[in-house]
Write a structure and sequence with these properties.
Jelly Rolls; eight-stranded antiparallel sheet; about 15% helix; six-stranded antiparallel sheet; about 35% strand
Length: about 325
């Protein structure tokens, strides 16, 4: 069996009524002709949206086929034992030219009961944000189910929500059950459990086809909502040069930020997990075993779990997100 290497994938661009062109013009995604690209699925094991490898001798294979052959050498033995051939994370770039719908995601138990799927806890790392942009996340204060239902009936749900002003470099962590929406003028990276289950609660009376309003999931959402998920949650870390700064550490993923202008040695003997690098600015080389792979702005790379040592060498200066799963905490 040939040795594994850092893997790149073909991004899958998703047209959305609220999308724009930033992912194409500023994050190096291939143009499709659409002016409404809302999402770029960078790494996905979601059915019918399996990521396809784009580099090296494994090019053309999808992520499930890869794990089926290499198993724990790709994901880590403990992760493979839990998830089998399904890659446990879904990673996207998102541009919201308009406000996204107000929505909520179920947790693992409810998702399994209703959909035979995993729940959806996620985080956002803000790449760009226009002045006046908003992130809707949780309620301003505890609300009762009755108050919530009244606000839905009156079209005033947004009045109950906690609103924060995002800036580039901010992080927002959204556990399953927390009502949320990405506001207009925001570009971000989303890291989440492998799940495509979204309960849309309110969509600003937006039309999907010019005639019909988009489908809502008001009743399904009711049992998924955590009415005690309140208050400010914005994470703003001082981004020191050439240091690894932790942004989120939860049972589903661990995400770090690295801004560097000199080579960094990385050792992963302490984790039984794959590692994902997302280049959000600049360029770098990943060096391992006398080999190298160039990574540019907007690219996502999967480092197989069997590769335990790499050198990250910036070309000038680079900024990346580093993601893995703490196997001792994972679900």
């Amino acid at each position: 069996m040939s040795e594994l290497y850092p893997l790149k994938f073909e991004p899958v661009l998703k047209e959305k009524v609220w999308g724009g062109i930033a992912l194409v013009t500023r994050f190096n995604k291939k143009p499709t002709g659409s002016l409404n690209i809302g999402e770029s699925w960078e790494l996905s094991a979601v059915a019918d949206n399996q990521s396809i490898i784009s580099n090296g001798f494994l090019a053309g294979n999808n992520i499930e086929e890869l794990i089926e052959v290499y198993m724990g050498d790709i994901t880590g033995d403990s992760i493979f034992e839990k998830f089998g051939n399904e890659f446990p994370l879904l990673i996207k770039f998102i541009e919201a030219r308009e406000d996204l719908s107000i929505q909520v995601h179920p947790g693992n138990a409810l998702a399994k009961e209703r959909h035979q799927a995993y729940g959806k806890t996620e985080m956002w790392y803000i790449l760009e944000s226009k002045k006046g942009s908003k992130i809707y996340t949780g309620f301003r204060e505890d609300v009762t189910k009755e108050i919530y239902e009244e606000s839905i009936k009156n079209g005033r749900l947004a009045d109950l929500l906690n609103i924060e002003c995002p800036e580039a470099g901010d992080t927002f962590f959204t556990p399953a059950g927390r009502v949320h929406a990405i506001g207009a003028g925001t570009v971000l990276v989303e890291i989440q459990q492998t799940s495509d289950i979204t309960y849309r609660i309110f969509d600003w009376n937006r039309k999907s086809s010019g005639k019909e309003q988009r489908k809502l999931h008001t009743e399904l959402a009711l049992d998924a909502i955590d009415f005690t998920a309140t208050g400010k949650i914005k994470i703003r870390k001082k981004q020191e040069l050439n240091k690894t700064e932790n942004l989120v550490n939860c049972e589903f993923f661990n995400t770090n930020f690295i801004n560097f202008n000199t080579a960094i040695n990385k050792e992963y003997y302490f984790i039984d997990s794959f590692v994902v690098y997302i280049c959000i600015d600049g360029e770098l080389l990943i060096r391992w075993d006398e080999n190298s792979e160039k990574v540019s702005k907007g690219e996502t790379v999967l480092l197989p779990a069997m590769i335990k040592e790499v050198i990250l060498e910036p070309i000038g200066e680079a900024r990346i997100l580093e993601i893995f799963i703490n196997s001792e905490n994972s679900y």
